[in-house]
Amino acid sequence: MIKKNKQYILIIVFLFFLSTLAVFSAENFKEIKVFYRNIKILVNNEELKLEEEPFIYDNRVYMPIKSICEALNSMVTWDNEHNNLSLFSYKDFEEANPLEGERFVYGEILYINKEKMTVNIYQHIDDNTVYEDKDLKVAENVIIILKRNNKKINLDFEDLKIGDIAGMVVNKENKIRGIIVDS
Questions:
Q1: Which residues are paired to 151 by β-bridges?
Q2: Engineered SS bond to 93: which of 86, 143, 165, 166, CB 3.0-4.6 Å?
């Protein structure tokens, strides 16, 4: 009899615990009614194709921020642990990782072949050492950043010019995947 009573008490405590979990998690959710009206998003007068359809709620249009940031050549990151959404007005790239065969070169751009997407860079390693990296291939998806003071904007490969001072991340395939242009 005592054993059966303990089982009943344990079952009741377990059910109570489960019901409180449902109550605590339910307070973070709100059921809303939204309106879909075949909303078109235009970026620089070109229609942006979205995977998720924008909707209207409380007289405001809601749309996926990641798609919008990518269309504006920006970057968005989500930190699930801290519930932080970070927006950047430019796309950035990871630093060079020597453990993956990458290297960082810094110097003056001496030559640009826009058709072959190659550059030559003149490096001053120290006061006595000068090195010229020739025919560095630029990756098609290269990220190029113009940095001035504390501001950064993205550029296209066509915006590079001879004489630019730049830092470049070169991957193990000897392709440039990221360029920072000093101004």
A1: 148
A2: 143
| Number of other CB atoms surrounding residue 175 within 10 Å | 17
Give the pLDDT confidence score for residue 10 in this predicted structure: 57
- For residue 125, the number of C-alpha atoms closer than 13 Å in the C-beta half-sphere is 6
DSSP single-letter state for residue 127: S
Output the six-digit token pair for 143.
């990220």
What distance in Å separates the CA atoms of residue 119 and residue 86, rounded to the nearest whole number? 33
What is the structure's pLDDT at 2? 60
Is residue 177 within 8 A of residue 143, CB to CB? The reply is yes
- Please calculate the CA angle 169-172-176 and round it to the nearest 5 degrees: 35
Distance (Å, whole) CA 147 – CA 155: 10
The pLDDT of residue 167 is 94
3-state helix, strand, coil in the chain (%, to 5): 20, 45, 35
Which residue(s) pair with 104 in the sheet? 169
- pLDDT-flagged residues of the chain (< 70): 1-27
* CA separation for the pair 65, 97 (Å, rounded): 30
Q: Give the DSSP letter string of 20-81.
A: HHHHHHHTT------B-----EEETTEEEP-SSPPEEETTEEE--HHHHHHHTT-EEEEETT
Mean of the per-residue pLDDT values for the chain? 85
